[in-house]
Specification:
This protein has 14 helices and twelve strands. The chain is of the alpha/beta class. Strand 3 and strand 4 form a beta hairpin.
């Protein structure tokens, strides 16, 4: 029983694809032309690690609510005239603007290919301020912590020990739509993560430069070739220990799958021109995702789940320049997201994939409306972006919080927004578009039955 548990744990942790394909399949790939299956769909989780201060990403612009925002924000407040107004007005006349560092996302929003989902967060049950204060409903046990926040967001199961991520469960439920399981449908360009851990589908980590193999791998006769031969001999040894046997099998599979996938990525990228003015980690991640989307046909993948990540959002201080609040660390991060996503969708548009790839943001948690000087602290609910041609864009979905410290939406007195949309509802809407049936939705999101909106409406059918 102990050995079985160990092997299961290895299967959860490995960053490899599935098994077996022919060389003729590998030779079918090309990076010079893309022919996409019209039924192909891809989800891209863009994780903002550290906790994004979405209070400055989406800001009310109508006079009354902007004044409330400015009063609560203090030194972190953005000037109203600097905001980028979006073409949305709520039924009650409320208007919003994006951070001035995000003109590309504003354009996507106004074109109808981006939406804002307001005040999303980890919940066990719908929760009000009174219920939170009196502890009359169960609460996520790891509130306000980075590690727990990342696990809870990526698993959507804050009341259970971690076993799988919701992206991994969605992959498990849709892998039968793929014609070839040699390369995993769950591809990460940001290393190992919780989101893509499935029971049957394992995440596969891809390097940003397309190198997928061991650094010292080489042909026979070379120095690197001698190392290759020695490693092959070690891997092929007959081991009595179950752990050694499992490890050798995983290593063999990872090396073989790396060589297989590398054969599709030889030569220069046809999409380099779209990213030529960018050199950030995120732009490189999205560039690689574009290349992998373009290969879905030769790889036989009608469904793909990707994971990208941007670090640096834990801005307790130096979030912005007090003398110039539209600049600083947070502005730089938002600018990177906006420019990189714009280049990504321009590249996808060149191969007709803009409607088939949906990108959504996620983060540890939101941050306090109130300031601690020139930064903000850990909070709870946060606003998020969903982008792509399949999005019902130019809309704000959900309810924006009342911008009052200690108000009806505050879990304390600093602007810790109690979420009004659960991660389950946000994720279920994406999963449904991806192809998870209503019957299987509780398998992908086991807690979805506790909430009233399994479809928030921000995705086209």
């Amino acid at each position: 029983m102990t050995a079985t548990g160990l092997l299961s744990q290895l299967a959860q942790l490995r960053l490899i694809g599935a098994v077996a394909a022919t060389d003729s399949q590998a030779n079918a790939g090309s990076t010079t032309a893309a022919q996409l299956d019209p039924g192909h769909k891809a989800l891209v989780c863009l994780f903002l690690a550290g906790g994004n201060d979405s209070n400055n990403m989406v800001v009310p612009t109508d006079v009354t609510r902007y004044q409330e925002y400015a009063k609560g924000r203090g030194a972190l407040g953005l000037p109203r005239e600097a905001l980028l107004p979006v073409s949305y007005r709520s039924p009650t006349g409320q208007t919003y603007g994006l951070h001035p560092a995000m003109p590309e996302v504003r354009s996507m929003f106004d074109r109808g290919s981006a939406a804002i989902v307001a005040n999303v967060g980890t919940l066990l049950h719908p929760t009000t301020r009174v219920q939170y204060t009196n502890r009359t409903v169960p609460l996520p046990p790891g509130l306000y912590g980075h590690n727990s926040g990342q696990v809870d967001w990526q698993s959507s199961l804050p009341d259970r020990g971690f076993h799988t991520g919701w992206g991994g469960r969605v992959a498990d439920l849709t892998q039968s739509l793929n014609g070839n399981n040699r390369v995993s449908m769950s591809l990460s360009v940001a290393g190992q993560n919780f989101f893509q851990v499935g029971r049957n589908v394992s995440q596969y980590s891809v390097n940003l430069n397309g190198g997928l193999n061991l650094g010292e791998w080489g042909p026979p006769g070379s120095t690197a070739g001698l190392r290759t031969s020695a490693l092959d001999d070690i891997i092929n040894l007959q081991n009595q220990n179950l752990f050694e046997t499992a490890y050798a099998g995983i290593m063999r599979g990872a090396i073989d799958d790396g060589l297989y996938l590398s054969s599709f990525l030889k030569g220069p990228s046809p999409y380099s021109s779209f990213f030529s003015s960018l050199n950030s980690s995120l732009s490189q991640q999205l560039h690689m995702i574009c290349r992998l989307v373009a290969l879905q046909q030769p790889l036989g993948l009608r469904r793909q789940v990707f994971f990208a990540q941007v670090n640096g959002w834990d801005l307790h201080d130096s979030q912005l320049s007090i003398d110039s609040p539209v600049s600083g660390a947070h502005a730089n991060l938002l600018r990177d997201v906006s420019r990189s996503v714009d280049a990504f969708y321009s590249a996808l548009g060149s191969i007709g994939a803009g409607n088939q790839v949906t990108t959504f943001t996620a983060s540890d948690f939101g941050r306090t409306l109130g300031t601690n000087g020139d930064g903000s602290d850990h909070a709870w609910g946060s606003h998020h972006l969903v982008m792509g041609g399949a999005v019902r864009g130019a809309q704000v979905y959900g309810k924006m919080p009342e911008f009052q410290l200690g108000g009806p939406d505050d879990a304390g007195d600093r602007g810790l927004w109690i979420p009004t949309i659960s991660v389950d509802e946000y994720s279920a809407t994406l999963a449904k578009w991806f192809g998870v049936s209503a019957t299987d939705l509780p398998i992908a999101l086991p807690n979805i039955g506790r909430f009233s909106q399994p479809d928030l409406g921000f995705m086209k059918s």
